[in-house]
Write a structure and sequence with these properties.
Chain A: It catalyses: 2 L-glutamate + NADP(+) = L-glutamine + 2-oxoglutarate + NADPH + H(+). The complex is a heterodimer. By secondary structure, chain A is an alpha/beta fold. Chain A is about 25% helix and about 20% strand. Chain A has an 8-stranded parallel beta sheet with strand order 11-21-20-18-17-14-13-12. A 3-stranded mixed beta sheet of chain A has the order 6-22-23, covered by helices on one side. The radius of gyration of chain A is 27 Å and the shape is elongated. In chain B, the strands form 3 sheets. A 6-stranded antiparallel beta sheet of chain B has the order 7-2-8-1-14-13, with helices on one face. A 6-stranded antiparallel beta sheet of chain B has the order 9-10-11-12-15-16, with helices on one face. In chain B, α2 runs antiparallel to α3 and α6 packs across α7. Classes of the chains: A alpha/beta, B alpha+beta. Bound molecules: iron/sulfur cluster (2 copies). One iron/sulfur cluster (SF4) binds next to β1 and α2 of chain A.
Chain lengths: ~550, ~375
């Protein structure tokens, strides 16, 4: 008997075990070739076979070496459960099985002396979300007839930009009895209330990015939905900066300042203004930690766009050199606004945290009138890479934080002046329209979403911790990788088509929700339209409790 | 559903006309109240147009509290009219012990002040009175303003008319503009303050409908002006928006419609005044109304107007003769008041206009 080595890694230590049926396997090799994580490998086994050749049983034994597929027992090449092997196997001979007894989080740290890093949340506690405990409860009756989602017109648009209070509008009554504009107002763009969230061109494969950009253009130009896409931190290809499609793009500047040199240099050559600028102070998916772009994903074109060498790139949790929210807002906003000559709205994105309401209160009183939006990002979302400990254990859920901000604005009579945008796990169940609608009733002007966009594109991950390998550069779906072979698995046209179709369906569903509560514009602040069967939720959000 | 109506005439009109106008639409309401506001007063009030009149329903105790407060503030009573009531048994009415209409001269210290300062004082006085009389429902202060009286009661309009002896027309109690409403209480508690028309600083508004943006409107309006209080009915929001847009912001009345029912963005984009309309829409989105509504309003200069929600989900019709214009939810109301008019000239306002009647009874239709 072999000596037992207790510290050896076996599949039982890993989150997924491979189910393999040698009798069905034809050894075509497809699964091994397709597994981007190298989590399975061919191996030769010595097998004993008993056989009989004559008319009467005359058992003989033969030993032979036969090839099989085996799971790799390695903490580096562990199986992510992505199921690609199963997808490509012609004989249903292989596939992953979740291993509830795994010791992965312990052995990884023990062996590597490093923290576990992951791409995307696993949301293992996601059985019931706050949003799912809310219902749209106000249904119009005879006295306030409901609208007809098919026949009536609806305005599904949300503001991006600083909105002046009515008393501050630069109006004078002219001789003809009409109001005339006598001064400047901050720029405001009315856009589709669901923004494609900030995923950088380094985080996504170039084909994925192209697919999303294509979908955005198609939604705008063919479907009449003014959907905007946020570039994420990491810059934008110069060709896009100079193209007419820039007008659909919200440029993000974050703590790493990646790519901004190029953007500034391209400014004189821009033929269109960008849709907006989003300054990222914090992010809910990895609050206080900063995003990680692992060296594996820093391909040559990424190095060029960001102006960096091939190394791990960290977006620091805060803007180095800025010491307060006031200072950072003032500096960045003034410089960004000045750069685009005050034609482009500038918004700010923070992580939902204990202090986000204070930050919002601060901004609402902003004397410069330049904060064009408050993007609030809660846990539960997230595609980016970060240390597992941050992803799993830090941050606030979005729902109550968003509500707090809205109610803070109500208390000051300033609702709507800084549009509220919220994200973080919206659309997790697949129904983004319902989540977006409820968030609006609670006070959001619009929402943004990232991870769901990946899932529209064909991401095989799910919220139960499947795959979550976006950080490794080995995305088996070609979505979050810069490996040419893997990226080529993705069909950008199909990505665009899926996103466009999802948006069209969602648009229809939003109207289906707006009609019965009698709204032809977005239901921002219509908390009276929501009810909850959970008393705690109802009290916390100040909505009606029903049972 | 409520029924609403308004009469504007070159001659002084008695409230019995308003009762007739509303009674013919009986099927459309449930007797949960009748209320009216009279502007441009005739009869006993005619000589006091420049002095404020208090409209109060109260207990004996409430009356004493109110009068003490007014005297303490320096107001001197110059006229008092207490309607003689006919408290015969069996009337469907939930009456208060006293109905008082008193006209006051301004306190000495403010006599030389500007009109604006006087108007602010009148508002403060009414708000203080209301707050003081709120305990134990000692009284309800509906208006305190020159040339305006308000009567509100809970019960069957016919019986309310009988109780106040309003069926017999006389020349003592008349006005050139009368707005009236009969209620059907659908959403909120039956309280006296919830009965339309609502009044604030010379502005009167009443509505037939449901304001689905009540919560939004209310949350926003609360912070806009000290006079925006109560919110006993979702229709109060229309008054406050009217007051805010026209008086506080100083915008022409034509913009009221752009605030409450803004044009779709696409249409705004095609207009010459797109910049202004867009700024209004984004800045005042919390004052939009989105439910089914017809609104009737009166301005401080006695201009009468009506407009509807953006989808025209509630009825209104305007009929006229040479000296009278009548607004009514149902045409049967106008038939009652102006049986001989040329009904072919009746106006059925559409969802994109304001119909305005000036003091010469000229009818204007302003396209939104
Ligand atoms: S499930 Fe995915 S990671 Fe696991 S072996 Fe199959 S292809 Fe590889
Ligand atoms: S994007 Fe790629 S790596 Fe990330 S979870 Fe989806 S399939 Fe896996």
């Amino acid at each position: 008997m072999e000596t037992m080595k207790i510290h050896d890694i076996t599949p039982n230590d890993l989150p997924w075990k491979i189910r393999y049926d040698a009798s069905r396997c034809t050894l075509c090799g497809s699964c091994v070739a397709a597994c981007s994580f190298r989590a399975i490998a061919p191996k030769v086994e010595r097998r004993r076979m008993v056989f009989s050749e004559g008319d009467f049983p005359e058992p003989k034994t033969r030993f032979s070496a036969i090839p099989v597929i085996r799971q790799v027992h390695s903490i580096k090449n562990y199986c992510r459960g992505c199921g690609i092997c199963e997808k490509v196997c012609p004989n249903d001979a292989i596939g992953p099985l979740r291993n509830v007894d795994n010791r992965h989080s312990i052995v990884t740290r023990c062996l590597a002396g490093d923290s576990v890093k992951r791409g995307g949340r696993k949301n293992l506690e996601s059985t019931s979300r706050t949003l799912d405990r809310l219902r749209v409860g106000r249904i119009s009756q005879m006295t306030d007839p409901s609208l007809d989602a098919q026949r009536h017109t609806f305005d599904l648009l949300a503001p991006f930009g600083r909105i002046l209070p009515p008393g501050k509008l630069p109006f004078a009554v002219g001789a003809d009895g009409k109001l005339q504009t006598t001064g400047q107002s901050p720029p405001v763009r009315w856009i589709y209330p669901v923004i494609i969230g900030d995923m950088s061109i380094g985080a996504l494969s170039w084909r994925m990015w192209e697919g999303v950009a294509m979908a955005t253009a198609y939604l705008n130009e063919e479907c009449g939905l003014p959907v905007r896409m946020c570039s994420g931190e990491g810059g934008v290809p110069v060709r896009l900066l100079k193209s007419k499609y820039l007008k659909y793009m919200i440029l993000q500047i974050a703590s790493g300042h990646f790519g901004w040199n190029r953007i500034l240099k391209a400014m004189p050559h821009m033929t269109e203004d960008p849709a907006g600028v989003l300054i990222k102070i914090g992010q809910g998916a990895k609050p206080g930690d900063g995003g990680l772009l692992m060296a594996q994903k820093v391909a040559e074109h990424i190095q060029a766009i960001r102006g960096v060498p091939k190394a791990d790139l960290l977006s620091p949790p805060n803007h180095q050199g800025l010491y307060s929210i006031e200072e950072s807002v003032q500096k960045m906003f003034l410089s960004m606004n000045a750069a685009f000559k005050f034609r482009v709205p500038v918004a700010i994105k923070v992580a939902a945290s204990a202090t986000s309401v204070s930050v919002f209160n601060n901004l609402v009183r902003d004397p410069y009138n330049i904060v064009g939006g408050f993007f609030l990002d809660g846990i539960d979302g997230g595609t980016g890479a970060a240390h597992e400990v941050s992803l799993d254990h830090t941050g606030h859920p979005i729902v109550s934080k968003l509500r707090d901000c809205y109610l803070a604005a109500v208390t000051q009579g300033r609702q709507g002046q800084i549009p509220l945008w919220a994200a973080g796990g919206l659309g997790k169940t697949g129904d983004l329209a319902a989540d977006a609608f409820k968030m609006m009733c609670l006070g959001a002007n619009g929402v943004f979403t990232g991870k769901l966009i990946l899932q529209m594109a064909g991401c095989v991950g799910n919220d139960m911790g499947r795959c979550n390998a976006c950080n490794t550069g080995l995305c088996p779906a070609g979505i979050t990788t810069q490996e040419p072979a893997l990226a080529h698995r993705l069909d950008p046209e199909k990505v665009a088509q899926n996103i466009v179709n999802y948006y069209l369906a969602m648009d229809q569903e939003l109207k289906k929700l707006m009609a019965p509560i009698g709204n032809s514009s977005l239901p921002v602040g219509r908390s009276d339209a929501l009810v909850s069967t959970d008393r705690a939720v109802a009290e916390r959000l100040q909505i009606q409790y029903v049972c | 559903m409520c029924r609403i109506g308004a009469i504007k005439s070159l001659n002084y009109v008695h409230p019995s006309q308003a009762l007739l106008l509303m009674q013919s639409q009986q099927k459309g309401h449930d007797n949960s109240g009748f209320a009216m506001v009279m502007h441009d007063l005739g009869g006993i009030f005619e000589g006091y147009k420049h002095l404020p009149t208090l409209s109060l329903a109260c207990t004996d105790e409430g009356l004493k509290v109110a009068e003490d407060m007014l005297h303490a503030a320096g107001f001197q009573r110059v006229l008092q009219w207490v309607p003689e009531v006919n408290d015969k048994p069996g009337l469907d009415i939930n009456a208060m012990p006293n109905y008082v209409f008193e006209t006051f001269d301004y306190p000495k210290h403010i006599k030389k002040s500007s009109q604006k300062e006087k108007e602010e004082l009148l508002l403060d006085m009414r708000l203080n009175l209301r707050a003081a009389l709120e305990d134990d429902e000692m009284g309800f202060v509906y208006s305190f303003w020159p040339d305006v009286v308000t009567l509100k009661e809970i019960g069957d309009p016919r019986d309310i008319g009988t109780y106040f002896n309003l069926w017999e027309a006389d020349s003592k109690f008349t006005a050139r503009v009368i707005t009236a409403q009969c209620r059907q209480n659908t959403n909120y508690d039956i309280v006296r303050y919830a009965a339309h028309p609502f009044f604030l600083q010379g502005f009167t508004a009443l509505a037939n409908g449901e304001n689905t943006f009540y919560q939004k409107n209310k949350e926003f309006q609360r912070k806009l002006h000290r006079g925006y209080i109560g919110f006993e009915s979702d229709s109060q929001c229309f008054l406050y928006t009217l007051h805010y847009v026209h008086r506080q912001l100083g915008w022409p009345l034509s913009y009221y419609k752009h605030v409450i029912t803004p044009l779709p963005f696409e249409e705004i984009g095609h207009r010459d005044d797109a910049q202004e309309l867009q700024a209004i829409r984004q800045s005042l989105s919390h004052l939009e109304i989105n439910g089914p509504n017809t609104i009737i309003g009166v301005l401080p200069d006695n201009t009468l107007f009506t407009c509807c929600d953006a989808k025209k989900l509630r009825p209104i019709v305007v009929g006229r003769s040479s000296d009278t214009v009548v607004f009514s939810s149902e045409v049967c109301g106008i038939n009652e008041i102006l049986p001989d008019r040329d009904w072919e000239t009746d106006i059925y306002p559409n969802e994109r206009e304001i119909v305005v009647i000036d003091n010469n009874l000229e009818v204007q239709r302003w396209k939104q």
